[in-house]
Design goal:
disordered C terminus; 4-stranded antiparallel beta sheet; 10 strands; elongated; about 230 residues; alpha+beta; single chain
């Protein structure tokens, strides 16, 4: 599925253009989020930089009877999606959300907060050129692993697949190449994560061992040499 990407959504004209689309369903670059306005409910999925959508927070706000309550809210926030998101993030969902100032003038509006179920989407900020990894992260996420492997910032790559539970790794089995590893890491369905064990960084696909390596976080060497003058 190809999802359009909008630069921003901060004026009345931009909202009208968005809603005139055959399917008002788009990524927004700033702030990075996924917007769905195909019914009487506006659904906003927050996409923090370099995160995968299966962990994203999602808000649904609207009325069963009409789009008018949502439009009144959008207008009262000066047509700026950033202002709407800031108001939603300030809400206390452990109490009566209608006490929040964002909703006081919109009595027909209901709002709900939950986690996205769209596990096969990748935020636009997670695509494109990956920068080298220059510091050891607190948590070895799939994105950090992809940065390191893309720039060859590692050594001693090993295949850690096992024949059976408790069996030793395949003898002499080659590890997949770097491009195949990157595709696996950036696929949300794979749920990859790294864990340091006995000096090696082990990468798991779900709960299954996949590969292991030793990080070397020096600045990567240039791939192309300048020609001599």
């Amino acid at each position: 599925m190809v999802i359009p990407v909008l630069n921003k959504l901060s004026t009345r004209e931009q909202w009208l253009d968005f809603c005139r689309r055959e399917a008002p369903y788009c990524f927004v670059e700033a702030p990075e989020c996924l917007i769905d306005f195909q019914s009487t409910f506006l659904k906003i999925t927050l996409l923090p930089n370099h995160s995968l959508v299966h962990d994203a927070v999602k808000y649904s706000l609207g009325s069963r009877s009409s789009m008018e309550p949502v439009w009144r809210l959008i207008k009262s926030c000066n047509w700026n999606i950033q202002h709407i998101i800031q108001g939603l993030e300030e809400m206390d969902f452990s109490s009566n959300v209608r006490d929040n100032s964002l909703l006081k003038a919109h009595t027909d509006l209901s709002v709900r907060k939950y986690f996205s179920r769209e596990r096969c989407l990748v935020a636009p900020g997670s695509l494109g050129l990956l920068e080298p990894l220059m510091a050891v992260p607190d948590i070895w996420s799939a994105y950090h692993l992809a940065q390191m492997i893309t720039h060859g910032q590692y050594k001693d790559l090993r295949n850690e697949k096992k024949l059976l539970q408790g069996a030793s790794p395949y003898a002499g089995l080659e590890a997949p190449d770097s491009s195949e590893i990157i595709l696996i890491l950036l696929d949300p369905v794979e749920q990859c994560i790294g864990q340091k064990i006995d000096g090696r960084l082990h990468i798991f696909r779900g709960k299954q061992p996949f590969i292991s390596l030793i990080p070397e976080l020096d600045w990567p060497k240039p791939r192309l040499k300048k020609s001599a003058s």
